[in-house]
């Protein structure tokens, strides 16, 4: 399940946050497009933790919450925006 979860988020990150896709799909500014898709990825990452919390509340298995919450935490750290990467992506997408 974790492999599918990380693969799903990786697919969306590569698919919608590559410079070529940004130029083809954006309707506003480059920064607005990047910020929107970064927030969508954050919401997807947090949804897994919420699912783990619901499983814990319904089934009273702490392991469900710890595993899914840990996977969500690792994903949020992986997706966390970094200023130098953000500006490099904006410059690269604007120059295509």
Textual characterization of the structure:
- By secondary structure, the chain is mostly helical.
- 86% of the residues lie in helices and 0% in strands.
- It is built from five helices and no strands.
- It has helices at residues 2-16, 19-25, 30-59, 62-79, 83-95.
- Helix 3 packs antiparallel against helix 4 (62-79).
- The longest helix has 30 residues, at 30-59.
- The mean pLDDT is 76.
Strand and helix layout:
Elements: H1 2-16, H2 19-25, H3 30-59, H4 62-79, H5 83-95
Helix pairs in contact: 1-3, 2-5, 3-4
Low-confidence segments, given as residue ranges, are: none
Largest sheet: none
Proportion of strand residues: under 5%
- Gap between N and C termini: 37 Å
| Percent helix range | over 70%
Report mean pLDDT, rounded to a whole number: 76
- Backbone shape: elongated
Number of strands: 0
Give the quaternary arrangement of the chains: single chain
């Amino acid at each position: 399940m974790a492999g599918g979860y990380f693969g799903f988020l990786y697919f969306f990150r590569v698919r919608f946050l590559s410079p070529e896709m940004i130029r083809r799909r954006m309707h506003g500014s480059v920064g607005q497009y990047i910020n929107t898709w970064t927030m969508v990825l954050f919401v997807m990452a947090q949804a897994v933790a919420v699912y783990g919390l619901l499983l814990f509340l319904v089934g009273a298995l702490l392991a469900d919450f710890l595993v899914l919450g840990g996977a969500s935490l690792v994903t949020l750290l992986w997706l966390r925006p970094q200023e130098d990467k953000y500006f490099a992506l904006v410059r690269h997408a604007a120059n295509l």
